[in-house]
């Protein structure tokens, strides 16, 4: 007896493929609070034969015992006029949701049946620069966001609605 505790652990995975008939997927993000809820950023063809970037929330609905497959069910499509780049669930609050588009970032309250945009910060820039990504700062109780805007990284405080720091040309 070596006194070492040994445990045998086994994992099983179920592989499913889900159809996304609403457009070409660009970004997926799973909720840290609900393992069946995720967001999808995708582009779709408009009636004018152009493309539009959208964001929607989906849930994986577990099938009944007599059903063989789980189902992908749309929860809601967010009503965003701008071209959506990415979206993220808040790391600590299951009702907050961040959407980064080319011209603004916005925070949505997803706690009710219909999500509501509770905060938005339009991009104030010269020369038409656009946002391409962003993230929640989990160290600031969800009150801070960092965004990437072409050649800069900016930090935003949602409590004051102000830019609090900026790194210009971080790749240089």
From TrEMBL:
InterPro entries membership: EIPR1 (IPR040323), WD40/YVTN_repeat-like_dom_sf (IPR015943), WD40_repeat_dom_sf (IPR036322)
Give an example GO biological process.
protein ubiquitination
The protein here is known as Protein tssc1
